[in-house]
């Protein structure tokens, strides 16, 4: 045990008279070894009283130092209970706190109670960190801990309710506008994903805002719109409101109500009672009354009158009433329709025919007429035409049948699909009825996956836009005939009748058709000079050579294949069809004549002929 020269002994009093014995033999020896009675400062039990007392020299065997709380006198006595196994003391002067050296312990196991906290009816004005205090005022028993010098924090009170225990972890904002900031107590050291934080805003926000808690850095405050975090707008947070938000790992998602949905407004859009809709606004929402006022005004302007409210079609409870009213309305319509010149809401009646009804044909004025007369026709006779798209005032060529007719090739152009006036609903029909082939070329877009669409005489196509490209359903009333005039490795030779075929055979689909296109091809190109081919139509002779009768040329300009080339498609001079001799009659024979060949003869000759309905 520790030797005591100036020992301060702490005695705790548990009853009106409690003897606290010192019976340790080592301690007794030390106390008995004192040569004289020494005065010491002693803290006595729950009286919290420091006393200057003379300690007697208890030299008797088995004696211990005892204190009488009534007489407040120390004396030596035998017996007593409990042992002090270690002694705490102050180094100098009076003890103002209980201190212990390393390794010292206090054994209070046999004591009735121990009291490490102070206790009074008022909270002490001062404290040191870690001290506990029980406040026993009239409001109940409350436990406080000193969390900092002279700062008490309540832990629990006997009068606390669930309302108090469940209060949110929150703080009061002291930041500037749009940069909210406050400190939670106890302080947090990091933002944790999924945690909800609550603060009271001292200003309204103006646009995007942030919150910084315990100086950990600003978190963006966002509101959820269709599941997407979006920045705040003015007054989403109002001054003095409690704001709760949940940290998602990046931003703090607001879970409290937005502050900018005020009376008379919906999500920032103001409720309007203007029945004229004059503002034409994207942020005003008309009231029910405003909508009714607008509808009634328009109805009145068009000349409509409501049905007799006492006898209307909605009165389904009386079949007779409903039938009577319906009959009356039909009579009005029939009478008006049968009288030319009678005014009907929105139109004037003229001469009526069966099937007429009020409809709009795009001409500008609604009228009584047959609403399904078929699509309009746009006939073009030039060598070029640009398809017209829709506009605010015209349907353009949408839904029309466009015809092209010219002896020369016709170039037809159309704007890109999906552009203004050529949306995914744009469609039209195009028929080429002239001898010249028609070529439709879209701007940028493709048509049936190609850059152009060619229609020969008699061809028609239904063309539709999908918003990106065009698609055509082509009806080709044509028959293609290909003749191998010379074998692929045989030199071409001049002369009439190098190939014959019976075009006008009985039941042939070529009868009544006309020659619409012709093209020549050699297998091996010749050089120097051209290879010239003519097509002849023979009225079949009854005897002898089939072309011994009437023979006419079907081409006004012969089909030519230039030197070094293998197709007539690239010839300097294109073949031209003789419109007077292009048709096929029953019994006609088509003959292929070679009128000229290159100096270095080409090998293999194929001639392709396309016949169409005139």
Q: What does this entry look like structurally?
A:
A hairpin with a 4-residue loop joins strand 32 and strand 33 (470-475). The chain is elongated. By secondary structure, it is mainly beta. 20% of the residues are buried. It is built from four helices and 43 strands. The protein folds into six domains: 1-113, no CATH class; 118-162, no CATH class; 170-254, no CATH class; 270-301, no CATH class; 377-475, Jelly Rolls, CATH 2.60.120; 478-612, Jelly Rolls, CATH 2.60.120. The chain is 7% helix and 36% strand. The longest helix is centred in the middle third of the chain and has 19 residues, at 319-337. The N and C termini lie far apart (133 Å). Residues 1-52, 80-115, 162-167, 310-317 and 329-350 have low confidence and may be disordered. The strands form twelve sheets. Strands 10, 11, 12, 13, 14, 15, 16 and 17 form an eight-stranded mixed sheet that branches. Strands 25-27-29-32-33 form a five-stranded mixed sheet, with no helix packed on it. Strands 35, 37, 38, 40 and 42 form a five-stranded antiparallel sheet that branches.
Task: Describe the structure concisely for a colleague.
With 614 residues, the chain is mainly beta. Helices cover 7% and strands 36% of the residues.
Quote the distance from N terminus to C terminus: 133 Å
| Number of separate helices | 4
**Average predicted confidence as pLDDT:** 76
What is the CATH class name of the largest domain? Mainly Beta
Q: Which fold does the CATH topology of the largest domain refer to?
A: Jelly Rolls
List keywords for this structure.
6 domains, 4 helices, 36% strand, 614 residues, single chain, 5-stranded mixed β-sheet, mainly beta, 8-stranded mixed β-sheet, disordered N terminus
């Amino acid at each position: 045990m520790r030797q005591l020269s100036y020992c301060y002994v702490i005695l705790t009093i548990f009853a009106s008279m409690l003897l606290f014995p010192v019976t340790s033999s080592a301690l007794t020896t030390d106390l008995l070894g004192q040569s004289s009675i020494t005065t010491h400062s002693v803290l006595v039990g729950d009286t919290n009283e420091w006393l200057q007392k003379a300690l007697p020299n208890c030299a008797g065997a088995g004696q211990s130092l005892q204190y009488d709380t009534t007489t407040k006198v120390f004396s030596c006595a035998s017996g007593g209970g409990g042992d002090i196994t270690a002694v705490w003391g102050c180094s100098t002067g009076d003890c103002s706190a209980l201190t212990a050296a390393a390794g010292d312990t206090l054994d209070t196991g046999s004591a009735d109670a121990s009291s490490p906290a102070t206790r009074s009816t008022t909270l002490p004005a001062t404290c040191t960190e870690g001290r506990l205090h029980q406040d026993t005022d009239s409001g109940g028993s409350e436990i406080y801990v000193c969390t900092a010098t002279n700062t008490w924090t309540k832990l629990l009170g006997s009068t606390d309710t669930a309302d108090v225990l469940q209060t949110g972890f929150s703080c009061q904002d002291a930041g500037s506008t749009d940069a909210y900031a406050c400190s939670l107590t106890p302080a947090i050291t990091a933002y944790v994903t999924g945690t909800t934080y609550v603060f009271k805003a001292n200003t309204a926000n103006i646009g995007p805002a942030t919150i910084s808690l315990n100086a950990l850095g600003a978190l963006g405050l966002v509101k959820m719109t269709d599941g997407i975090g979006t920045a705040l707008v003015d007054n989403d947070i109002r001054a003095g409101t409690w704001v709760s938000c949940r940290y998602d790992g990046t931003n703090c998602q607001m879970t409290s109500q937005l502050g900018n949905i005020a009376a008379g407004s919906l999500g920032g859009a103001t409720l309007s009672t203007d029945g004229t809709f004059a503002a034409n606004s994207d942020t005003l929402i008309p009231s029910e009354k405003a909508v009714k006022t607008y509808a009634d005004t328009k109805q009145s302007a068009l000349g409509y009158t409501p049905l007799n409210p006492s006898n209307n079609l909605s009165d389904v409870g009386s079949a007779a009433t409903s039938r009577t009213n319906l009959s009356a309305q039909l009579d009005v319509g029939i009478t008006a329709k049968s009288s030319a010149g009678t005014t009907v809401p929105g139109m004037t009646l003229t001469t009526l025919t069966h099937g007429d009804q009020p409809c709009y044909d795009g001409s500008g004025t609604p009228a009584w007429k047959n609403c399904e007369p078929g699509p309009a026709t746009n006939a073009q006779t030039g060598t070029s035409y640009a398809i017209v798209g829709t506009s605010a005032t015209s349907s353009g060529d949408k839904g029309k049948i466009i015809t092209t007719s010219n002896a020369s090739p016709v170039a037809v152009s159309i704007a890109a699909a999906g552009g203004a006036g050529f949306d995914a609903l744009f469609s039209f029909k195009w028929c080429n009825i002239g001898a010249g082939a028609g070529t439709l070329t879209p701007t940028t877009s493709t048509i049936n996956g190609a850059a152009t669409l060619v229609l020969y005489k008699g061809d028609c196509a239904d063309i539709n836009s999908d918003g990106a490209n065009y698609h055509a359903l082509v009806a080709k009333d044509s028959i293609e005939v290909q003749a191998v005039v010379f074998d692929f490795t045989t030199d071409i030779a001049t002369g009439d009748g190098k190939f014959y075929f019976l075009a006008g055979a009985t039941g042939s689909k070529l009868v009544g058709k006309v020659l619409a296109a012709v093209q020549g091809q050699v297998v091996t190109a010749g050089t120097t000079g051209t290879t010239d081919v003519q097509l002849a139509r023979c009225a079949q002779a009854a005897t002898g050579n089939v072309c011994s009768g009437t023979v006419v040329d079907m081409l006004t300009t012969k089909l030519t294949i230039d030197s070094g080339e293998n197709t007539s498609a690239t010839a300097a001079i294109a073949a031209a069809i003789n419109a007077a001799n292009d048709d096929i009659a029953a019994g006609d024979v088509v003959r292929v004549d070679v009128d000229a060949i290159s100096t270095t003869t080409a090998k293999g000759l194929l001639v392709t002929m396309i016949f169409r309905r005139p």
